[in-house]
Design goal:
The protein has 11 helices and 4 strands; from the N terminus they run αααααββααααααββ. The strands form 2 sheets. It has a two-stranded antiparallel sheet. Strands 3-4 form a two-stranded parallel sheet. Helix content is 31%, strand content 3%. It is globular, with a radius of gyration of 21 Å. It is mainly alpha-helical. α2 packs across α7, α8 (166-176) crosses α11 and α10 (209-219) crosses α11 (230-241). The chain binds heme C (2 copies). One heme C binds at residues 52, 55, 67, 69, 71-73, 83, 85, 88, 91, 108-109, 112-113, 116-117, 132, 153-155, 200, 204-206, 211.
Length: 307
């Protein structure tokens, strides 16, 4: 086939589009852990997987909460209802309305370090970041650029958006959650905190009641997922998110073009805080919590001096 230099002059865009259409998202599955190769790349993939599973143990200065990546991205990021990471490698760079910018996968990982783990951004050029990216690439094997697999690129949207009632939510918490997450919501051992200094920050997606209700209704209580009604999921999500949690520096710069979802619990451009938590816990290292959106490098006029 002739090389097509100018679309529309004697050639068409149809060839690449067909290749993409032939991908069967429903039949696709990520490779199993046993398929990790036994070479240097495989060693990096294994280290990345270990970082997802044992984040605070591996990176105590960066992951300062009781959460690990797999506290939310359950089953090593392979669970369809728990914000699957399968295919993430093929979805970035991506425009995020929250940042108002096109973001690389490493920056998206750091959003979860700083917001979901309420920790510090890890250096983008670190071996640890390369290892995490190697693992994300591994569980994205064969997914074409931009394709969605396993039904989602985040938590599934809730069909009904209900108003959560914190008083009813307390009852759900005491009946179905307290046994693992403890009376003070702080969890213990492998059970992560739902609120307090060691939980996710106000800037995390989980701090939005609809996002938390989605995670909870599909995945919790861990021993009987799917057993809560939609109303109970919204009630307990509202109860959990009414408690204090770490602040997220720079959050008021989110959605710089406006258009924040209605349940974002802090004020942004054109948006009033929705049911904000009672109190915010200040961060030990606010600077480490920032992942600035990419900025333009300076331009000089053509022919300007090279000094
Ligand atoms: C408190 C829960 C939570 C924790 C902990 C967490 N994440 Fe996330 N993460 C999410 C949610 C929720 C989303 C999707 C956002 C949405 O649905 O609105 C997400 C999205 C992502 C994405 C983008 C996926 C895509 O395809 O768009 C990546 C990559 C990611 N997380 C990596 C990580 C890594 C690596 C860690 C550990 C350092 C981590 N996350 C810890 C909740 C969490
Ligand atoms: C049997 C123990 C158990 C019960 C009961 C339980 N959870 Fe969890 N929960 C976990 C574990 C363990 C995780 C971490 C995910 C994993 O390891 O699979 C988790 C994670 C979470 C997370 C995401 C991480 C975080 O800390 O924010 C939320 C939110 C959550 N649970 C809410 C609830 C709610 C609400 C209930 C009650 C309706 C509940 N859980 C009941 C064990 C439990």
């Amino acid at each position: 086939m002739a090389v097509c230099l100018v679309v529309g002059i004697g050639c068409s865009r149809s060839a690449p589009a067909k290749a993409h259409q032939s991908f069967d998202a429903a039949a696709w599955a990520p490779p199993s852990e046993a398929e990790i190769p036994n070479d240097s790349l495989g060693a990096s993939i294994r280290r990345g997987l270990a970082l997802l599973r044992f984040t605070p143990e591996s990176l105590p200065t960066y992951a300062t909460s009781s959460l690990r990546c797999t506290s939310c991205h359950e089953l090593d990021g392979r669970k369809a209802t728990a914000a699957p990471l399968t295919g993430a490698h093929a979805r970035f760079p991506k425009y995020l309305t929250r940042s108002g910018a096109v973001i690389a996968l490493a920056d998206r990982v750091n959003y979860c370090f700083t917001r979901s783990l309420a920790g510090n951004a890890i250096p983008s050029d670190s071996r640890e970041m390369e290892d995490i990216l190697a693992y994300l690439a591994f569980i994205s094997k064969g997914v074409p650029i931009g394709a969605k697999v396993m039904g989602a690129d985040g938590l599934l949207a809730m069909k009904d958006t209900l108003a959560g009632d914190t008083a009813r939510g307390r009852v759900v918490f005491e009946t179905s959650c307290i046994v693992c997450h403890q009376k003070d919501g702080a969890g213990s051992g492998a059970i992560p905190a739902l609120w307090g200094a060691k939980s996710y920050s106000i800037g995390a997606s989980m701090a939005r009641v609809e996002r938390a209700a989605s995670f909870i209704s599909h995945n919790m209580p861990q021993t009987a997922p799917g057993s809560l009604t939609t109303q109970q999921a919204f009630d307990v999500a509202a109860f959990i998110n009414s408690h204090e949690r770490p602040d997220s520096p720079g959050k008021d710069g989110d959605w710089p073009l406006g258009g924040a979802p209605r349940d974002v619990p802090y004020a942004t451009k054109g948006h009033a805080a929705f049911n904000p938590p009672a109190r915010l816990v200040p961060r030990g290292n606010p600077q480490g919590a920032l992942v600035p959106a990419p900025t333009r490098i300076g331009r000089t006029a053509r022919g300007a001096a090279h000094d």
